[in-house]
Amino acid sequence: SFWITNPDNQFIGNHAAGSDRYGFWFNMPITANGPSYDPNVCPQYEQLGEFTGNVAHSNGRYGLRIFEKFIPVTNPCAALAENASGRREQPNPAVSAPIVTHFRDFLAYKNLFTGIILEEAGALKFHNIRTADNVIAGMEISMTAAGPWLTSSDDYHLQDALIVGASENIDDEILHAEMSGDTCGVKGSRNEKMRVKDTLFVNFDYNSIFAAISTCSHCEGCGTD
After folding, report:
1. What is the Cα 193 distance to its own chain's centre?
2. Is residue 219 part of a domain?
3. How far is CA 224 from CA 27, 138, 207, 210, in A?
4. Does the pLDDT at position 203 exceed 60?
5. How far is the C-alpha of 47 from the C-alpha of 88, rounded, in Å?
6. Domain limits at 13?
7. Looking at the domain assignment, is residue 221 inside a domain?
8. Looking at the domain assignment, is residue 103 inside a domain?
9. Rounded Cα gap, residues 116 and 112, in angstroms
10. What residues contact residue 31 under an 8 Å CB cut-off, 6+ apart?
11. pLDDT tens per residue, range 10-52
12. pTM score
């Protein structure tokens, strides 16, 4: 429904429903490309305008997808360091500091894969998120890219959230899909420093392959044997 190639925009009170794949897709290139090519515009590292009060439901894959990375920093293009191949890929903390970025009041339900999925996340914080009846997971973070920003006990990727495995309003099709595979509330990252605080997990007791929290995104299923 929403294909977003630059995060410096405002998304407030929108509904994304019934898409073949994604409700909201943040798909930022390293630099602006195509007819708008500009080496001085670096969307993967720019600040988010605002993302508040949005809803994504009944999408074919994800409610909200951030792929391949979103690492907001204070000086987006100057922050990029060249790798061995000469490509500018990773933020250089000596040049530019991470910016804490907030996604607020997002509701994701009845998506056929995951409510919220992030491939590589910087200092992103999700507040008052609600997910329910998503087949694979409520939220999944594959990698945390800006670990040094987590310096105090108040820094969390997910806070004050409600994650529901199977609600009273679940569709038979989604319940069958959940019962046929692994379903979990939050799938943790493959590296360190993903944090969750003050989050309520409800109805993950349908069978032994349901789990409220699972580790190692894209490694194994949510089951606990």
Report:
1. 15
2. no
3. 33, 17, 11, 8
4. yes
5. 18
6. 7-80+90-214
7. no
8. yes
9. 12
10. 37, 38, 39, 40, 41, 42, 43, 77
11. 999 999 999 999 999 999 998 888 888 888 899 999 999 999 9
12. 0.89
